[in-house]
Amino acid sequence: MQTGIVGLPFSGKSTIFQTLLSNKADSAEFKTKHLSERGIINVYDKRMDRLTALFNPRSKVHASIEYIKVPGLDPQNETGLSPQFFANLKTVDEIILVIRDFESEMSPHPSGKVDPRADIEFALAEFLLSDMLIVEKRIERLEKQLKKLRNVTDERELQLILKCQKALEAGKALRTVSFNDEEQKQLKGYQFLSSKPLLIVINIAESQIANSEKVTDEYRDYQAETVSVMSLCLKIESEIAELDEADQAMFLEELGISEPAMYRLVKISYDLLGLISFFTVGEDECRSWTIRRGMNAQQAAGVIHSDLERGFIRADVVAHENLLEQGSLTACRGKGLLRLEGKEYIVQDGDVMEIRFNV
Fold first, then answer.
1. Residues 40-99: pLDDT tens digits?
2. Edge-to-edge strands, sheet with 339-341
């Protein structure tokens, strides 16, 4: 899973990137503002901690996410957004758009005024424009090809791209347009920015933390099936990330927060992409695996290894809650909680699975 982080200068995109990677966000924060940065994090999951405590394995492997901080989203840039900006974003599965909602004399807003809604609209308009340019070029090429030699494949693609053009000209993001399975498959190669799941993060001041939900509510009109909005104070989140576990718990308690907002951010990212986790456990290793919601047991086995999918026989499955409550797989089996499931079983979030196969 790959997630791109974008935002206007001084919005907090560097802070969110460094905080996710548990790096200190210090005065050097903006030294690399012209370069993209990449980093991989382990996805925190309380269920993994509890399963690991139960099995005490030799190794513990979390699911992971790669984050890419992509600079270049600046309304004051006279030459427009660079091709590299769009090239970096085209590879990601999801976009996090960091929006500033705080005043700072040290870091003036590039437009001279803090206006979160205007910043959101600017970013969304740039995504649409990027897609429109791709669409226009592709239509021109397809029409030339069809003049030389008419074929059904090109004609179908042209109709699909014209459908995209009509939506974009009406100011609609492609994620809001209904496409059938075949059309979605065909569009995947284009990597349109307005079709990608989007998480809008409103970066608020420390004084607004108590009213963060109220701030979020102000932007609910942007929320949709694959668009979500959340508010957090990145300054505080970066401070939390720098603390050790004991001090972190005390700090959160003082703030009246149950857990760092970064954990919620990752969970929302999973939900937007339709992702869930299942686990494999044992004395050697406890591991979290990420799959698409709706995958069956055989497909999930393929995420572990292609041989498991090819030679799939069945899966031993137990809900992680039942395993933790009973204390062992043997106890779960004795109470009928450990089930044998076939290849068509739809894996549920939090399932603990052991794949039986023969190659």
1. 988 888 899 999 999 999 999 999 999 999 988 888 776 677 888 888 898 899 999 999
2. 59-61, 285-292, 275-280, 351-357, 312-319, 339-341
Tens digits of residue pLDDT in 118-130: 999 999 999 999 9
As a dihedral over the C-alpha atoms of residue 76, residue 109, residue 133, residue 70, rounded to 10 degrees, the angle is 110
pTM of the model: 0.87
Contact between 254 and 264 (Cβ < 8 Å) = no
CATH code assigned to 2-112+196-272: 3.40.50.300
The CATH superfamily label for domain 294-357 reads Beta-grasp domain (3.10.20.30)
List phi, psi (to 5°) of 297.
Answer: -60, -40
Give the type of residue at 207: S
CA torsion through residues 209, 215, 220, 221, sign: negative
The class level of CATH for 126-194 reads: mainly alpha
33: pLDDT strictly greater than 60: no
Domain boundaries, the chain: 2-112+196-272, 126-194, 294-357
Structure confidence by residue, pLDDT tens digits, 145-156: 998 888 888 899
Using DSSP bridges, classify how beta strands 339-341 and 64-69 pair: parallel, antiparallel or unpaired.
unpaired
C-alpha distance from residue 89 to each of 4, 67, 143 (Å)? 6, 11, 28
Q: Which pLDDT value is given to residue 34?
A: 61
CA triple 228-232-233, angle to 5 deg: 155
Burial of residue 68 (number of CB atoms within 10 Å: 0-12, 13-18, 19+)? buried
C-alpha span between 70 and 72 (Å, rounded): 7
